[in-house]
Design goal:
heterodimer, A: 778 residues, alpha+beta, Alpha-Beta Plaits, Calcium-transporting ATPase, cytoplasmic transduction domain A, six-stranded antiparallel β-sheet, 27 strands, B: 55 residues, mainly alpha, 2 helices, elongated
């Protein structure tokens, strides 16, 4: 059965390769106790956020995997929010074991506290949904009664029956309006108190006046009552409001999820030498922190003890690891590659790199004018215009035409009802919800509601190189020309190291490489292995003592490893940082779409030039500092352009904040993902192009929807002002315009135009999980 | 027209039942994972009580 799902499933791609065992899980997440809640004797539950779930196959894989473990009594996946709840017997199985089991299937999970995360938010969404249900119930029944009245009015219904039906409508509408209208009334009151007016003021006025006036009409036994208009108005608007809320909630939970997945406990060394895990926020200056090999450095600090290589790619964009020793400053975000380091945490605040980046970002945010969305811009002048029209209709009829105040008020109310922004209130949220769902299927998370609207206006797109256009990990060049035996010998030594070049060497060697014993790692230099035939060395040119001129190969500027064996000439392995498989196609697509594509990188110029040439980017700048990137973006904006920034590093964060809209891969630094409006799954750059296409389509649909809403107002408002709008006409006009808007928005989900640059993801594993899941983890 | 006297209460009662059912479904978490529910309907067997004889 699960094979059915394999076709549309994205195989999860990890931000870090994982063959995590329980110990590795413990290292990664620290103590799990605070997340475990007891739910009775021999049962405890833990809530996990899971990365990489995308389809039905994932649900069954995860649930079967967990249920196959002894001691697990329930496992329930929530696909919409990528969360997982597991009930297990703490005596029989550890939570680390559960997480390690998920790791082996390629799903990275971190625990979270549902109480802390959901406080308040879900409540509001639920309140809106309940209000919507009540309004829907009342609207349906009142409409039923109203239709009878409308039919009765042209046939032979007596006034007594009509009044009875009106009274029943009143009985339904008045409480429903009080209950379901609260979200609008509250917001309108708040706006009036602070001396502003918003969309909710005319809405509240229309609903309250229509209900009150209809009550009066019912008392006097009149022919028309607007109960149905009042309540169906509320119903439609609540749908729009709920969808809007949901889209925003989804964006926020996406952001939280990203933040949570990267939260790693910090290992603090106390003065007496004991180690304990500590939340990153609780670490203070002066403390000593232990960073093991392969771990990301969590704080800014100075090396107190140890020598190692660190990978500063996320900070500077530099692909080559940097050697550090005692007294060297290191920055949060770098990855410790070779050996454990003890760091003394430096003073937080001024002077640290993170503080500097944050300061640049804040400044950029302040300079960036707050973007006013199309809907906000419309609603800003909408309310005054509507109020003015209703007032004009009232006084026009009352003073000029000499109608009674009741009739004049009825006409004014009719104007308020027909102008009410049903279609307007639905136009944006419906498009947004559908766009968001569609992007999510493609592994793209929207963190900000107006991001798509801004993306649609972009005319220049600026890419970072390392980690954005490239995969951020070196790959061995010219594998075919290298002697296989030499490669395998070198790889078996390299297999013991966490250095990225060593890892790339092992990956290039192909089949199972057996690591040799007795390898000594010399941090910042290389590896030594005492073989039977003597000493083997694998490392930098200096480490092997190869003179500069000895290399017959041209210097390509890329990183290299030398391999020296007793009695043979040293061999050079050269690496380069390969671009993402779909990078060239995405860039070609953007260029075809008429956008100006640029490349900014902190890396050395020859490397940047080579990459720009390879991908067909004409304008590039190398060796830029975070400040340079920021200035570059600001210059673009000052020149009247609308730049989008795509970047992943700490050094990109200020530029991301300064751009009109920013995108970041999910493997990026925390601070960049926080600054970015859109986060795409890290394996494909296609997410950027897909976001752009969806943004363009959404923009077109929103504009069409607005146009239709205005067209509808253009027809109905004169009718209302002239006094021709009966409740029946109001009901038909209102529902039909809302339906048209919704149907139009649905077209976004139907068309498959976004698939053109989609790179097929590698299929593996998922199709074979049927029936035998969980065998590998027992 | 006397039919209205019991037809309208019946209609309203049915409506209230629907509303009640919706609120109950919401409270019991059936709206928490709409995407997941769409896929679950296609699963052959329920992991909770795996039954071999169903295929």
């Amino acid at each position: 059965m699960t094979q059915l799902f394999a076709g549309d499933c994205c195989v999860p791609v990890l931000t870090q390769p994982s063959a995590d065992g329980e110990a590795a899980v413990r290292d990664r997440l620290g103590a799990l106790d605070p997340y475990i809640h007891s739910v009775g004797a021999d049962a405890a539950e833990i809530h996990l956020m899971v990365e990489g779930m995308s389809c039905g196959g994932c649900i069954s894989t995860i649930e079967r995997t967990l249920m196959a473990i002894g001691g697990v009594s329930a496992a329930r996946v929530n696909l919409s929010s990528s969360r997982l709840r597991v009930v297990f017997d703490p005596g029989a199985v550890t939570p680390e074991h559960l997480i390690a089991a998920l790791d082996t299937h390629g799903y990275r999970a971190v625990p979270y506290d549902p109480v802390a995360l959901h406080a308040g938010r879900d409540l509001e969404e639920r309140k809106l949904l309940r209000a919507m249900a009540v309004a829907g119930f009342a609207a349906a029944n009142v409409m039923l009664l109203s239709v009878s009245v409308w039919a009765g009015n042209v046939q032979d219904m007596g006034p007594a029956t009509r009044t009875l039906l009106h009274w029943i409508s009143a009985l339904l509408t008045v409480p429903a309006v009080f209950y379901a209208g609260r979200p609008f009334f509250d917001s309108a009151l708040a706006a009036i108190r602070s001396g502003r007016t918003n969309m909710d003021v005319p809405i509240s006025l229309a609903v309250i006046l229509a209900t009150g006036m209809s009550l009066l009409q019912t008392l006097s036994g009149a022919e028309h009552a607007y109960f149905d208009s009042a309540i169906s108005l509320l119903f439609f608007l609540l749908i729009g409001r709920y969808l809007d809320r949901r889209a925003r909630g989804k964006a926020r939970s996406a952001a939280e999820q990203l933040a949570g997945l990267n939260a790693v406990a910090v290992t603090v060394v106390s003065p007496d030498g004991c180690l304990h895990a500590c939340a990153p926020a609780a670490v203070e200056a002066g403390m000593t922190v232990l960073v093991t090999a392969g771990e990301r450095i969590p704080v800014d600090g100075v090396v107190a003890q140890g020598r190692s290589d660190i990978d500063t790619q996320l900070i500077t964009g530099e692909t080559l690891p940097e050697a550090v020793g005692e007294g060297d400053a290191v920055f949060a975000g770098a990855v410790n590659l070779a050996a454990p380091l003890k760091l003394t945490v430096t003073a937080a605040g001024e002077g640290t790199l993170l503080a500097e980046i944050t300061r640049l970002m804040d400044a950029a945010e302040q300079r960036r004018a707050r973007y006013v969305g199309l809907a906000d811009a419309v609603s800003r002048w909408y309310a005054p215009v509507v109020h003015a029209m209703a007032l004009a209709a009232f006084f026009g009829w009352f003073l000029l035409a000499g109608a009674g105040w009741q009739d004049s008020l009825m006409i004014a109310i009719a104007v308020l009802i027909v102008t009410c922004p049903c279609a307007l209130g639905l136009a944006v949220p419906v498009v947004q919800v559908i766009a968001c769902a569609r992007l999510m299927r493609g592994g793209v998370l929207l963190k900000n509601g107006s991001a798509l609207e801004r993306l649609a206006r972009v005319d220049t797109i600026v890419f970072d190189k390392t980690g954005t256009l490239t995969l951020g990990r070196p790959e061995l060049r010219d594998v075919a020309t290298i002697d296989t035996e030499t490669l395998r010998a070198a790889a078996s030594i390299a297999a013991t190291s966490a250095h990225p070049l060593a890892k790339a060497l092992v990956a290039a060697a192909g089949e199972k490489i057996v690591a040799v014993d007795n390898v000594t790692e010399v941090p910042g230099a290389g590896l030594i292995w005492q073989g039977r035939d003597g000493e083997h060395r694998l490392g930098s040119r200096e480490f092997l003592g190869v003179p500069e001129s000895a290399s017959g190969e041209p210097d390509t500027g890329g990183p290299e490893i030398w391999y020296g064996r007793p009695g043979r000439d040293p061999v050079c392995f050269q690496f380069d940082d390969a671009p993402r498989p779909d990078a060239a196609r995405v860039i070609g697509a953007f260029k075809n779409a008429g956008l100006d594509v640029r490349l900014l990188s902190g890396d050395r110029e020859p490397v940047v030039a080579a990459m720009a040439h390879r991908l067909g980017i004409d304008e590039w700048v190398g060796r830029v500092t975070p400040n340079d990137k920021l200035r570059y973006l600001e210059d673009l904006r000052a020149a009247g352009r609308h730049p989008a920034m795509v970047g992943d590093g700490l050094n990109d964060a200020p530029a991301l904040a300064a751009a009109l809209v920013s995108l970041s891969p999910s493997s990026g630094a925390d601070i960049s993902r926080n600054a970015a409006d859109i986060v795409f799954q890290s394996n494909r750059l296609g997410g950027v192009w897909e976001s752009y296409l969806v943004a363009i389509r959404s923009e077109a649909l929103v504009r069409q929807n607005f146009a239709m809403a205005f067209l509808y107002n253009l027809i109905t408002v004169p009718l209302a002002v002239c006094g021709f709008v009966t409740p029946l006409i109001a009901a038909i006009a209102m529902s039909s315009s809302s339906l048209v808007v919704i149907l139009n928005a649905l077209r976004l989900g139907w068309t498959g135009s976004g698939r053109s640059v989609r790179v097929p993801s590698v299929k593996s594993g998922i199709a074979t999980t049927d029936g035998e899941t969980g065998e590998g983890i027992k | 027209m006397t039919g209205l006297l019991y037809l309208i209460p019946i209609a309203l009662f049915l409506g209230v039942c629907g509303l009640g059912a919706f609120l109950w479904a919401m409270r019991s978490g059936q709206f928490d994972d709409l995407d997941g529910a769409a896929h679950r309907i296609l699963f052959d067997d329920d992991p909770a009580d795996a039954s071999e004889d169903r295929r």
